[in-house]
Amino acid sequence: MKVTQGQFSFLPDLTDADIAKQVEYALEKGWAVAVEYTTDPHPRNTYWTMWGNPMFDLKDPAGVMMEITACRREHGGKYIRVLAFDSKKGWESIRMNFMINRPEYEPGFELVRAEGPGRTVRYTLRSHSTAAYPAAS
Amino acid sequence: MNGAVESIDLAALYQSSNIHATMHALDSDLVGLTPVKTRIREISALLLVESARRQLGLQAEPPSLHMCFTGNPGTGKTTVAGRIAEILHQLGYIRRNHVVAVTRDDLVGQYIGHTAPKTKEVLKKAMGGVLFIDEAYYLYRPENERDYGQEAIEIMLQVMEDRRDDLVVVLAGYKDRMDTFFKSNPGMASRIAHHIDFPDYAPDELVQIATLMVEKMNYRFSDSGQEAMRDYIIRRMQQPRFSNARSIRNALDRARLRQANRLFAGRDVPVSRADLQTIDGADIRASRVFTQ
Fold this sequence. Notes:
The structure holds 2 protein chains of 2 kinds. Chain A is an alpha+beta fold. Chain A is 23% helix and 29% strand.
């Protein structure tokens, strides 16, 4: 099951040239670019693990691509995304967010039922992939 | 489609690359420095031919353009580093026209594990342009074997090798110290293709530089001022801690101070535009260089 979240996720996976173009766009706008990874692609899991600090004051996407390569080498079997943070007043928020790496096999989500009083049933989602890394995030 | 183009007009390529304007500006803005200009011209020719070869489908590894500038203080190493970025950018060798100038403090950390992220951050900032490391020999401190400078050098070497089309590294420093630095870091020496030595300026060249500098500041020398400047330069060159163009800049700053004081002392008479612009012989001859 292909996890879709963030920008471009309904498109075919981005190539490195595509990623560099997107990063260049972000840098031209003066946004800080960050790389993050996780094993838990649950849509409500906002906080992924940071791969180093966000990169401020970059002029060229080559620096970001270097970090992406390094992150893939270490966490190739996990979900990796690229964020662009706009520090301008009034925004101070994420402006871009797209996935650039996903596991070869994506197990998807499990529907968990919890029975409550009076035959009520509450449903929730759990990422299958978290089971493979019980302790990691 | 089948590679019918078999010849390239180098002259036209030269015209369209905008490089002649930059080379011209280099000639007129920078006094002297003949060996430096010659080498830059050679590199430009290489890159121009390289782009012609690319158009005909003759692929080759991009040439390595890491450089080392050696020379005494004030010989224009930093100025030329800025120009190099412009030229390489116009020739399409680097993607951005920008220089990141750093020293040891920006690259080397204070404690274990601090150096690598620091060096990498600087390298990332410089990507696509020129990384200028001033006084690069401070990176290596042989007297302290646990110095983190070595770590910074190793990280840089790796990036210089792997990403040579993303980054041009320019090292700068005094000649003798750079030589020792390269002797103890053969890896660094072998990755730097261009060693450019900046010669000291001759007195005539320094006078020209002084004239250019005052013009840039919207001043000019009176006849006696011009003569005094020449005398000043000849005397100053004999004295210790002479640092070429930098000494000239400092001398001019002090001359401006004296000129302002002279005008202020005679404030009863209104000053003309020419008065405000002129640096007189007396402004320069009041220097302590003439009394020593």
